[in-house]
Amino acid sequence: MAVRLDHGDDDLAEVHEINVTPFIDVILVLLIVFMIAAPLATVDVPVDLPSANAEPQLRPAEPLYLSVTSDLGLLIGEEPVSEEGLAAALEAKTGGDREQRIFLRADKTVDYGALMNVMNELRRAGYLKIALVSLEAAAAP
After folding, report:
1. Beta strand pairing status for 51-52 and 64-68?
2. In this model, does residue 2 exceed pLDDT 70?
3. Which of the four pLDDT bands, split at 50, 70 and 90, describes residue 3?
């Protein structure tokens, strides 16, 4: 009894072309995923800015603090001032020196827009050197 291992000439012809349809399907699915995910990656996140871990800078001997309280009141040092009288009060405190740095500190409940209004008033008055004051964060181990 003999077994024939050769099945004759029934071989299928080899196809030398690559089927790219599955590849295109995968690329289109990835494109759709990234088109949906990209806008979600740019969503604004609430930020709490009152503390910083940056190295503290040297302070001048008598720094000029401008404070914005939680009820949007303005204080230069310990003296209350109105928003309209801010430029005149700064002029009196600095002696007209617009190169003096103003240290701006605000309560963490103050709206960002209100803080920007105060900074705009400082800019209109000619005081461009503004330092934002924050609490020092604990150093990471």
Report:
1. unpaired
2. no
3. low
Give the start-to-end residue ranges of the domains of the chain: 61-134
- CATH architecture under which domain 61-134 falls: 2-Layer Sandwich (3.30)
- Summarised one tens digit per residue, pLDDT across range 94-135 is 888 888 888 888 888 888 888 899 999 989 988 888 888 877
Mapping DSSP onto H, E and C, the string for the chain reads CCCCCCCCCCCCCCCCCCCCHHHHHHHHHHHHHHHHHHHHHCCCCCCCCCEECCCCCCCCCCCEEEEECCCCCEEECCEEECCCCHHHHHHHHHCCCCCCCEEEEECCCCCHHHHHHHHHHHHHCCCCCEEECCEECCCCC
- Sorted by sequence, the CB contacts under 8 Å of residue 129 that are 6+ apart come out as 99, 100, 101, 102
What does the pLDDT average to over 53-67? 73
Angle, CA of 136, 70 and 119, to the nearest 5°? 75
